[in-house]
Design brief:
By secondary structure, the chain is mostly beta strands. It has two domains: 2-137, Sandwich (Immunoglobulin-like); 143-216, Immunoglobulin-like (Sandwich). The chain has one helix spanning 2-18, and strands at 24-26, 31-33, 40-45, 49-55, 61-66, 69-74, 80-87, 104-109, 119-121, 129-137, 143-145, 148-152, 158-164, 171-175, 181-185, 194-201, 214-216. Strands 3-10-4-7 form a four-stranded mixed beta sheet, with helices on one face. It has a four-stranded antiparallel beta sheet with strand order 6-5-8-9, with no helix packed on it. A hairpin with a 4-residue loop joins strand 1 and strand 2. The termini are far apart.
């Protein structure tokens, strides 16, 4: 019975992570959604903890936060990071009102002291399980200034730049250098207000969640 219950819960978690929203435009709200990367979740009976891995900006502090969770690791020069043993809050066991661990989010603070937007994981089923989750592709950091947009992401990765103004959404594709840096010359806007955000795709693993949305004119 316990094995069957675990299989059902893991199926729910897997579908929660792997069913994506395709690139779409909602004209009424003037927003664009990016699909999540192909993240795989597996679990075995164990003490409640988690292994989490993925890619993000290189040589950056990678933070994983949530209720009862505050972990930090460091990404490598190629952007790879890994949390080998994140202990989940076992004090939640026995509460009949709870079925899942609290939501956890992961983000990077780059070597240039900029921050990526958080990527939040689906809530994991509450129980004595060892979860193995990945790969998680972190969003790029993004800054705007002096007619230039720039940021940091996984080295040698593909970046899509989205800009919105009056429901017109051009998409520009650029590539980061071997250090993960990228830049993009902003167009002449003629007084229009534009919103800009970006996403990273890497090594066929899908698109990251979107960066912070910035405004320029």
């Amino acid at each position: 019975m316990q094995t069957s219950k675990l299989a059902i819960l893991l199926t729910f978690v897997y579908l929660s992570i792997c069913v994506f929203v395709p690139n779409s435009v909602v004209a009424q709200s003037n927003t664009t959604s990016l699909p999540s990367p192909d993240v795989v979740v597996s679990a075995t009976i164990s003490e409640p903890k988690m292994i989490l891995y993925g890619w993000g900006p290189p040589e950056s502090d990678i933070r994983l936060t949530g209720i009862g969770i505050d972990e930090k690791t460091r990404s490598q020069t190629d952007g790879y990071f890994r949390f080998d043993s994140v202990f989940l809050p076992s004090e939640l066991f026995g509460n009949p009102a709870l079925e899942f661990f609290p939501e956890m989010c992961i983000f990077a603070i780059t070597s240039k002291h900029s921050s990526t937007s958080p990527t939040c994981l689906p809530r994991l089923p509450l129980g004595p399980y060892l979860f193995d989750i990945g790969p998680v592709i972190l969003a790029p950091s993004l800054e705007v200034g002096n007619n230039l947009s720039k940021g940091k992401t996984i080295p040698n990765s593909d970046i899509e730049i989205f800009m919105t103004s009056n429901y017109f959404i051009p998409i520009y594709r650029i590539r980061s250098d071997k250090f993960g840096d990228f830049s993009f010359n902003l167009p002449i806007t003629k007084g229009n207000v534009w919103r800009i955000f970006a996403g990273t795709s890497f090594n066929g693993l899908g698109m990251s969640t979107k960066s912070n949305t910035l405004i320029f004119k």
